[in-house]
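Data deposition worksheet. Section B asks for the primary sequence of the deposited chain exactly as it was used as input, without tags or linkers unless they were present during the calculation. Section C holds the resulting structure in token form. Section D is free text for depositor observations; keep each observation to a single sentence. Incomplete worksheets are returned to the depositor.
Section A, Depositor: J.P.
Section B:
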Amino acid sequence: MIKLTSTAVPTQYWHKLEDGRVQCDVCPRFCKLHEGQEGLCFVRARRNDSIVLTTYGRSSGYCIDPIEKKPLNHFLPGTPILSFGTAGCNLACKFCQNWDMSKAREMDVLADEAPPEVIARAAKELGCSSVAYTYNDPVVFLEYAVDVARACREKGVKSVAVTAGYICDDPRRELFKYMDAANVDLKAFTDRFYHKICGGHLQPVLDTLLYLKRETNVWVELTTLLIPGENDSDAELNEMTRWVVDNLGPDVPMHFTAFHPDWKMMDHPPTPPATLTRARRIAIKNGVRYAYTGNVHDEAGGSTFCHSCGELLIGRDWYVLTAWNLDESGHCRKCGTQCAGHFLAKPGTWGAKRVPVRLREYAA
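Section C:
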């Protein structure tokens, strides 16, 4: 059981049940807790007849990454992003590649402490255009993520949520009110997969995507980790990509990434690169204008092409930009077609560097 520390703060999305339990209303799990219990996420717990967040202000670490690693290919390409996460997760994905943090029950994984203002100041002074709430899902550290995003906005620093989108309506509105971009993990397109592999359901994720598209200005990209024999069939990829085009539009980028055996799915083989290429081809055939492959070395699959004339707009070799054929307003230099996204007049030059950061020096 998580010990209550000074990092615990009150939360607002919960209510008391007639049987005496308290229900957490942040996500569709609706954990119903007795005094002293924590939810499946391990970090939202019942204390003194209310729900508190036990990890506020503490992180598993800070690192400057290329924004393409989130992955975001159409939001400030080439720029550095200050990334951090906490502990816990509200899903139970058997393939989780950050399981040491997302499923951590021990508070000692949270080695770094920083109030929101310190993170915002550090990002600004380090030259980061944005901050990413990542490594584990910001849904479970909602209050901390929102406070950091507010502080960042005051300093002109953008906020990026890397999330599975498994969240209820009111907290969803609270979280994304302060986000500028999001990469949403659309793990599959069957409820069977979500229930069997992730311990959740598909519809709440689709609800998040529809909300983001219809009611916000948040820039959205999607990621699907393709696992052989689980979510990589032509039929499922066809249904998924058609739904995206019909409901979110053709300009939402889709990233198809390779699975590597991890945690509770060591018995599954890695994803063949040909599977990612096939998924990308299906997406493009169904009208997705920007489809990418990930976790494999594939320059064509990682690059951005004009959907109108086919011109190479942004070349990528892993996280390094190798070509830039957009004008200062994000149009194709060959045919003048607008490329969807948020672009600077010139590309960033951060490249593939990954730089761990300690924030103590920014606390003064």
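Section D:
The chain has two domains: 9-53, 59-357.
The first strand starts at residue 9 and ends at 10.
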